[in-house]
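Suppose a colleague, Dr. K., hands you the sequence of a protein chain of 409 amino acids and asks what its three-dimensional shape might be. Before reaching for any lab equipment, you can write down a predicted structure in token form. Begin with the sequence itself:
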Amino acid sequence: MGAAIPGMSESPPHETFIFEGRTIPFRPGDSVATALLWAGVRTTSRSVKYRRARGPSCLGGDCGTCLCRVDGRPNVRACTTPPAPRMVVAAQNVLWDASFDPADLVGERAPEIDHHHMFVRPRPANEVMKRVARHLAGLGTLPDDPAPIPPPEDIACDVLVVGAGPAGRAAAEHLAAAGLDVVCVDRDRHGAEDAPAWLRRGFSIFGIYPAEGVVAGTAPEGRAERLVRVRPRIVVLATGSRARLPVVPGNDLPGLVSASALATACRRTERPPPEGTVCIVDGAEGRAVAARLGVPAIPIEDVVRLEGRRELEAVRTRSARVDAHVAAYAVGRIPRDELARQAGVVTSFDGSGFVPKRAPDGRLVTSSPLSFALYGCGDLCGPGHPERAAEDGHRTATRILAALEGRPA
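The predicted structure, expressed as tokens, is then:
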């Protein structure tokens, strides 16, 4: 099944961690989420309000469905956390374990019951129900042993590049070679060991504050995270794109994952996709991803719904019921534009979705002036092929150098 991905190996993993008392093997290149997925674990938490099962989906830090408790620390994204020997991982928002749904105790009406609005009266019953609701809802509990918070770090640089994909890396390399003080950050920790000096992995940007000229993020510091404040002259957003979730009934069942992220995990860990994987596709690019994974492709226009009581069990098409343990989706991509929108970037419709608008000189068009120059490149400005993204990164770097030298872009 996995022969389409070069370098796959069936050799057994050598290290393990613990999830809910179960020993989970992992390989180099795994995240906690991918190790769980290959071990057959698809549910890592329950939703805040209706207690629906939740598990890894985007496999890249774009959603919050894989939040779990790692070594006593709550709300950790399993998909961006590398496993470690003897690490202890636990599900969140659950009673006893992730497979148990307390709503099962009240029968078929369980999906209709909202524990936030039960027993509003009489008051004594309401006080009891509030305690129950607080136990069922929320995002985990406080850490068992909070690590000391490191002092903030302040960085001043010529150029901050957010994202180290094909576009961001190309722009950063070009600008660094021109002698500029470049800092390129990426939340993916894979490959941090041999990264160039200007690249910082495991660094998550959470805010752009144009009035103060500050871009803020967090960087790992032992068991804690350090607040980092960057004051750049120029910001290049190369945040890329994420897989578009198929709009079909049942698309929140654990077992539905991004096909491109799954292919990346297969390549990094040198193993084929999990048993029982199918791929929901749209267009030639989707079919190419399915072929690369070596799994059956199901056109999105044929999908009626995804079926399963608590986790994915099958894909129902117009003509058949296809059993599936994992359904990888490759139905298009959308820009990761949250930071761009926070900075006030104007968007425009490109025929398939809204993308940040660029001026002829490569700068992103904003609704109000900024204290630093803001550029965008790669999939952020329209999802495409990685080679085209790298070319756009080089082109953006050339425009930045031209602007600094006072030449036409």
